[in-house]
Amino acid sequence: MTEAIHTTCPYCGVGCGVAVSPDGLGGATVKGDETHPANFGRLCVKGSALGETLGLDGRLLHPMVHGQRSTWSRAVRYVAEGLQDVLAKHGPGAVGFYLSGQMLTEDYYVANKFAKGFIGTGHVDTNSRLCMASSVAGHRRAFGSDTVPNSYEDLEEADLIVLVGSNAAWCHPVLFQRMQLARERRGAIIVNIDPRETATSAGSDLQLSLRSGTDSVLFSWLLQCLQSGGVLDDVYLNDHTTGFEVALAAARRIAPTLAVTADKTGLSATDISRFTELFVTRKRVVTCYSQGVNQSVQGTDKVNAILNCHLATGRIGKIGCGPLSLTGQPNAMGGREVGGLANMLAAHMGYGAADVERVRSFWDAPRMAEGEGLKAVQMFEAIERGEIKALWVMHTNPAVTLPRANAMRAAMAQLDLFVVSEVLEVTDTSLAGAHVMLPATAWGEKDGTVTNSERRISRQRSFLPAPGEAKPDWEHMALVARHMGFSGFDYAAPADIFREHAQLSALDNDGTRDFDLGAVASIDDTAFAAMQPFQWPWRQGEEPQQRLFADGHFYTPDKKARLVAVDEPEAAAKRSRRYPFTLNTGRVRDHWHTMTRTGKAIRLARHIGEAFLSVHSEDALELGLREGNYVRVESPHGAVTLRMQIDNGLQRGSVFAPFHWTNATSGLARVDAVVHAFTDAVSGQPDLKATPVALEPVVMLSQGFLVSRKRIALPPWIAHSRMTVSGGEAVVFASTLTPDALHGILVNLLGEMPEHASLGDVESGDFRVIALAAGRLEAALFVGRERDEIALDWLIEMLPGENLDPAQRNLLLAGRPPSGGADLGPLVCSCFGVRRAVIEAAILGGAADVEAIGATVKAGTNCGSCRPELKRVIVDLAGADRTEARAG
Ligand code: SF4
Q1: How far is the CA of 740 from the centre of ligand 1 (A)?
Q2: Closest to 196 in 3D by CA, of 573, 587, 566
Q3: I want to staple 687 with a disulfide (CB 3.0 to 4.6 A). Which of 551, 562, 678, 679 is the partner?
Q4: Is the CB of 15 under 6 A from ligand 1?
């Protein structure tokens, strides 16, 4: 048997190692890599399902120019000449590059070198701007460098883990499992600070549902409690930091008393005191934070308010102590290391004259960008104004994910040159008017390195051949650069690029810059192929550094850290009579970004298969909405229509919607079309969690589903969501048309149906069509006044079957198995397909904890991603029992 190939998961910033065994037919078995220090063999449900995402469906396999198949040489010439034309007419400032945390470090490095050193534009930004730019800005203000001081191992060594703005149970599941280990093994306490109660709350000891945007108020009060509690590290403060007094004075202004802190944050004084007492008394504290902190107009201040508390107590870079920014994307950190952000240069250098000169001479760059470029939102606004004329998008979908997504899509359509390097043939961004589409390699085909949230560089290794004419992203750039006559792009393989990147990091470094890969700057190809995960900095002649800053050596001019005086938080836009709700956007457990990969995995699709809006039950009541009703969500920038679900983990007035659904996978559900474009003044990160919106119930006269072997496009004005199922696709939909009118439109989409059965009743509003071919189900269309969930489940089950017997065929139109079927509720455990009703039955049958549920119905016994939800079901049922007991 061939040995498994060790590579890394392409989803979140945990950066789990995976061991892949290809089957030789284009598929592979994927397991957790037991030797990888990020996960030691664990994988969450997304990682576990990676093997299901490897198919070539929808792949872009050849270069396309203006929608026509082209050759690489023609496409490269078109891009090179287009860039030269824009440069000649408008100069380098008219060229922009929008990159992605999905790219490998080597891809990112070449893109930055090409853009900043040879095109001469600083307008190179990445979708990581939407993810963790505030953490970068906060790190640089405090440490003088973008350095994460600690390691994942510290989670298992901590006595207190504070999560801020982080639904780690869903977004960083393997790390959350490591936190749970600390809880079980050493009695660590987990405090979850989040306006919204989430799956993470179920695995925490204290939930602080503070008012949105008030994190820095809470940490300002904490700073004072650390002083009054006598736990400041005076020696560390005096010897290794500056700014404490100023930061403390600002903290006193923002949170002068416990009562004011309680008033501003909306928390009880008791809960605040419990939290501050824990922080004072538990010496080993790790504070983890992610998008709830970063995606805010006060994102950088929030980060610094947290860092202030760690610096003031000297709890940084020590075992079990430190701040730990959890990055969203698999290589957000690698992008930061090569200058993927518009305000940084390669190897963590800035735009100071010495750094610019060093990079210029190292690259032998003919046209070096000498100042910071525009950050993502501002860059697209410059496209909107017609100032940027040429844009190259790599591996990301800005037509879906940028705030004011409709306006951004329209802006891209006016570009003189619009190039997209992409894995898929069709995305919302390519449909925005891409002139050139260049086929890129996907996970499994790419080769290079990525860096996870703890500064650990791991190899991503290819185990599949590149399909069609797909090439790695670095090669796209190198081909165009060479065509433009630039030297320095003759790379034969990723190892060449990695060596160059490592050499630049070590150039004139001598410990003056945090990022240094000097020890691997001369690594040979064989050693690169076998390279094991390591943490940077790894300086020549030294060991890789697991933790930084305990010694008080920072990367500011005086080598001291800065405590930063933060400002009073203020919302970018307030709710109003016209827009009385606040829209918070985020993720769900089993999907990733715009679902281009997770959307292919059958088991992931069913956890949450439909775009939705969560609303507090009392708000829903006031609006006259019931669970499952539809609601229009509107802001000045756009509107979506989503199915409503009740979530009392939300605060009144706040609503939540995931951003995963695109025009390719849904209708009326592209949520970022609604989101406003305010950004943090320091980091440029958009405020993706606080858009004022109006909600308006939409009376849907018809609802239903289409289950089909082939993809059938629905009109975009019908609210719908599409999911992959075994044998084809399922689409759920709703419309303001009557059932017979909607049926009339949709049945025409089914095309020729030589063998079919149908029924239609205008009075009851029930319309059903079953199309068959060669003894198997081809399509089922059910339209009614309500959606028949039991029929949907059963027909999804029947779709992949061949040779249906007469009894089964007779039952298809009824949409019921012979037993009649039952609505088992939402899917909780994706690995074993266990639904909520089955779990409830297990609990009512005596399964008192997560282990017992697992022993009874297997839920939670594979990847563990659903374990927080299992706890939540136990708590919910216990609450129902108590309510019944009280009523009785
Ligand atoms: Fe992948 Fe899950 Fe690990 Fe994140 S936690 S890297 S999604 S397996």
Answers
A1: 45
A2: 587
A3: 678
A4: yes
